[in-house]
Amino acid sequence: MTAFDLVLFGGTGDLAMRKLLPALYQRHRDTADAAGWRIIAVGRHPITREQFLARAQESLRRFVAATDFHDDAFARFAQCLDYRALDASRAESFGDLAALFADAGERIRVFYLATAPDLFVSICESLAAAGLVTPQSRVVLEKPLGRDLASANRINEKVGAIFREDQIYRIDHYLGKEPVQNLVALRFGNALLEPLWSRAWVSNVQITIAETVGVEGRGEFYDRIGALRDMVQNHLLQLLCILAMEPPTSIDADAVRDEKLKVLRALKPLTREDITTSAVRGQYRAGAIDGEAVAGYLDEQGIPSTSSTETFVALKAELGNWRWAGVPFYLRTGKRMQERLAEIVVTFRDVPHPILPTASGAREGNKLVIQLQPEESLSLHMMAKVPGDEMRVRPVQLGLDFGDTVQTRSWDAYERLLMDVIRGRLTLFMRRDELDAAWRWVEPILEAWSRPGDRPKSYTAGSWGPAAASALIARDGFGWREE
Ligand code: BG6
Predict the structure, then answer these.
(1) Are residues 343 and 234 in the same domain?
(2) Do 103 and 191 have their domain in common?
(3) pLDDT above 90: residue 410
């Protein structure tokens, strides 16, 4: 495996401890020749390398499956780990870092910015000033990139003055998830679905990312962001792109990203009136998850008691193009929901002339359900005959459980994405124009929701969100799958 240096800003933060270090550990453990790996975690805390390693080991024990965590594998991984305390907002602090690279030559160099977006520009400028940006360098920018179109543009301009576009990896970890990759395989590795994959046969699409967790320890950060910026502008819209895009001419980065961009640009802009009817935002109040009482959002640590930040969003989106005109795409995400569930449901139209009665008396079209979490599975809901004398039909499921089929541990999204950065593969990362189009579409919603007096609807923790979200979809004659 290629030798590389990875500098991880935010090295003691939540993302590094929960996701990035576990992912690097797993790849290190499974890589035959990892001799040339060097990972330098950078953080504000004045701790020693040993103290950092102890923290990392503790996190890995917690976040890596017990069957995959071994002390000897950690000891080998630890040999390539280092730690530097540095104030990322002060250019003078970068001198120490430069010293570490004195003999690094043309090795691949990755700067991973797992920090708040307001530090992206100053970190990149300090890296450049310290002479650390080489032609072989890459920078990884975590989401959310900015808080609106203008701030995202500002960051992209400034970072773009230091790194070429093909050196910038804007990460959206949903694109690295195995089942999302499988959605690409399903659509472009099979001819079967393509003739059905349009307004002619699809009646509606639902994309849900529901979480049972609250804001955990990140209250202050989350309160400045909210669910629209945290989940919709990136994860949900990226899933929508993969689902709705035209077949690209190849799997090359720009071929794929050109097609995704067309989807984002085809999103019909939402007017003020649309936002009132087609967008719902919610905020959880106290309730119970799995039988345990949980606090409301306003009582979480770091949240002002008057906060109007949304922890839930449901939206109806439409695409203005020939393939999808008139097909509603319902997007929904929330914290403290009844279940942890990420899934895509494509509902097809009913048969044009039904001659067979259904057992329930109700009619429904076939459904393709792609579950990303907690299971990685795909199921096709078809009609089959009810056993017995009479000719009546009822829905049955043809299922594929990816875990059972492949019989191997599926890689975590960050494992794949980190290796892609090192190998220089940009396909699963967002290009600047995609980000721009995504912000452009959400901006009117952000504006409408920031009007004084506009407050999110309240929902009980442990439910499926505010009643208005059910009403939003019921108005079109559909329902969320779980309700
Ligand atoms: C992150 C959000 O991007 O995705 C978090 O910032 C959210 O708020 C997380 O919890 C969900 O990711 P996953 O992979 O656990 O579904």
Answers:
(1) yes
(2) no
(3) no
Are 226 and 101 in a shared domain? no
**Tens digit of each residue's pLDDT (9 = 90 or more) over 74-91:** 999 999 999 999 988 888
367 phi/psi in degrees, rounded to 5: -130, 140
Distance from C-alpha of 149 to C-alpha of 407, rounded to nearest angstrom: 43
Ligand 1 contact via 230 beta carbon (within 6 Å): yes
Pocket residue to mutate for ligand 1, from 235, 336, 343, most atoms within 8 A of Cβ? 235
Task: State how many domains the chain has.
Answer: 2
Answer whether 178 contacts ligand 1 (Cβ < 6 A): no
Q: Are strands 292-294 and 312-317 parallel, antiparallel or unpaired?
A: unpaired
Q: Are 25 and 107 part of one and the same domain?
A: yes
Distance (angstroms) between ligand 1 centre and the Cα of 322 equals 33
The Cα 261–Cα 253 span in angstroms is 12
pTM for the model: 0.95
Spacing, Cα 295 to ligand 1 middle (Å): 20
Q: Is residue 405 scored above 80 in pLDDT?
A: no
Ligand 1 lined by 142 (C-beta under 6 Å): no
Ligand 1 pocket test: pick from 142, 211, 332, 371 the residue with the most ligand atoms within 8 Å of its Cβ.
211
Q: What is the rounded CA–CA span in Å between residue 312 and residue 335?
A: 6
Task: Give me ligand 1 centre to Cα 18, in Å.
Answer: 11
Q: Strand pairing of 341-348 and 367-373? A: antiparallel
Q: Which two tokens stand for residue 173?
A: 């970890």
Q: What is the pLDDT of residue 407?
A: 64
